[in-house]
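Quick note —
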Amino acid sequence: MNKKINLTLVIALIALLILLSLSQKALYNKRAQIGLVTTSLPLKAGQNAWKFLGSLRTVAAAYLWLKVDRIHHEYYGDLAREQELIPYYRIITWLDPKWVDAYYVGSYMLYMFKQPQESIKFAEEGVKFNPKSAKLNFNLGQLLILTRQYSKAFPYLQKALILAKDKREKLAIYQLMYVSLKNSGKQSEAEKILKSLEKLKKEIEKETKKEVKSY
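Predicted structure written out below.
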C-alpha cells in the first residue's frame, strides 16, 4: 500500500479552492459596484457559495488529516520519516485554521526537529485562530518554556488553566506554571502555585481511589 501523500495533488486542490473563493468574492464585489446587487437574495447566494467553499476546505483538511495521522502512527519512532509529514500539518491549517490538532502536533514536531522559532510561530498562529483552545494555549506555553522564555509562557498557561476542564490537564498546566514563575524569579508566586498543584494532586488521587473501589 502506498503511504505517500501526493503533495502536488494537495497543492493543486488548495490552489483551486483559493481561486474559487477569490473569484466568487470578486464577482460579488463587481456586481455590487455596478448596482446589480439590489436585494438580499444575491447577497445570500454569495454567502452560501462562500460557506460551501469553506465546507470544501474543511472536508479536504479532514481527508488530509486522516491520511497524515495514520502515517504518523506508522512512522512513529522513525524521526527521519516523521519529518516528512511536517509540511502536511501546514497545509491542513491553511485549509482549516480551526484544526487544533494539526497546530498541536505540527508545532511540537518542528521543535523536535530543531526548528524552535518556526515551532513557536506556528503555535502562536494556532492560538490566534483558536484563542479558546486550552490545548493550544498550553502548547504555546510549553514551547516557550522549552526555549527558556519563562516569563512569556506564563500568560498562555494562565489562560489554558481557565479554559481547561479536565483536572489532569489542569495538573499539567500547574506544573508548567510553577516552572515558569520559579525561573522568572517569582518565588512567592511559584509557592502559591505549588500549593494549588499539591491540593489538586490530592483531589485526583482521592477520586482515583474511589473509582478503583467501585470496580
